[in-house]
Specification:
Layout (H helix, E strand, L loop, with lengths): L2 H18 L3 E5 L5 H7 L8 E6 L3 H8 L3 H7 L4 H15 L3 E7 L14 E8 L4 E7 L4 H20 L4
Parallel strand pairs: 1-2, 1-3
Antiparallel strand pairs: 3-4, 4-5
Amino acid sequence: MTDSELAELSLQVGQALLRRKATLTTAESCTGGWIAKVLTDISGSSAWFERGFVTYSNDAKQQMVGVQAQTLADNGAVSEPVVREMAAGALKAARATFAVSVSGIAGPDGGTPQKPVGTVWFGFADDIGRTEAMVKQFSGDRDAVRRQAVSFALNTLRQQFLQNT
């Protein structure tokens, strides 16, 4: 997905949030704040983007968005339980309407047979108690994996959480 396509997708997400009078927060690991960046590139995003947490380390995940140490120890940072806790913790900390979390292995190193490079987990939460988690396997270099993760997170938010706006 090109920068201009990410910008258009960000605009669509922002317009849907604005129509709903809702706010969004992000908790990002492997994307390093890229989701927050493309959202805040949109003029007027302060009306609907609350804040972003870049929780690259396990300590940051615990300190900033309340991921439990035991969850990390039992599952590793790239896992369904961790992205669920990241999304729920970001939602609570930001007092937002929606939260998106991302944790993955962008490469080129860090993969294992169980979690190869390109494995990315996503968490989604909202203030009425809905939570979703899903995993994707992306291909390409580090930049390509991260770009695909940003696109997937925004598209999923738009299609599954904001589709009625």
